[in-house]
Amino acid sequence: MAERDPRAAAQARTPQASRPGPGGLAMLAPARVKTLKGLVWLLALLPFLRLMYLGATSQFGANPLEFVTRSTGTWTLVLLCVTLAVTPLRRLTGWHWLLRLRRMLGLFTFFYAVQHFLLWLAVDRGFDVAYMIKDIGKRPFITMGFAAFVLMIPLAVTSANAMVRWLGGKRWQALHRSIYAIAVLAILHYWWHKAGKHDFGEVSIYAAVVFVLLAMRIWWWVRRPRAAVAAR
């Protein structure tokens, strides 16, 4: 579900020897990238395994639903921020192999978002559709969270390489730019959830991270035509 650049992805697949630039991490061998990908996969799965362990050992505390809902929501937001950070980090460091991790990070973001949504849908609301619709329309933080989740679905569905070919690079890119809207909606979801308790400490950190990551993209987008003119 990550907003990939097909040209950058092609560059990431280019043989290491044919790529200019410094050595070290910028020239990470394919075998090491594969190993790193496996480690990142395991790290991204750890929060889920932790929940399974805590559930099996009855360590969810006095309010299990609140504990699991908060945990899955937090990890959705954390992984969303990590996914958004891939492009800026690649541009700043020249580590093009980071693109090999982005789709996996995006899918793990959706994985935790699905859990977060199902807890609300099945456990908290008991599949009561009328109650759910009323909840979405009446409570702003539910509205923002539901909108973010709905927007994530087509990104997850079209994450495979076959979908890139089917949609075409430009249309696929345009679709996956909705991750920026998802990030803003996720922050609003969390912000309004905390507004009742006036507890904005943690959500302010996530908001600042998302702001910086999106501001960097806007800055590069604004500078792009100027750089093209200066190069002529």
Short description:
The protein has 232 residues and is mostly helical. The protein has helices spanning 6-13, 30-56, 64-93, 99-124, 129-138, 140-157, 161-167, 169-176, 178-195, 201-231.
List the helices and strands and how they pair.
Blueprint: H1 6-13, H2 30-56, H3 64-93, H4 99-124, H5 129-138, H6 140-157, H7 161-167, H8 169-176, H9 178-195, H10 201-231
Proportion of residues in β-strands: under 5%
Oligomer: single chain
How does the overall form come out from the CA principal axes? globular
Order of helices and strands: HHHHHHHHHH
Poorly predicted spans: 14-22
Radius of gyration: 20 Å
Helix content: over 70%
- Major sheet characteristics: none
For the record, give the distance between the C-alpha atoms at the N and C termini, rounded to a whole number: 36 Å
Helix-strand makeup class: mainly alpha
Number of helices: 10
Number of strands: 0
Mean pLDDT over all positions: 88
**Structurally, how many domains make up the residues?**
1
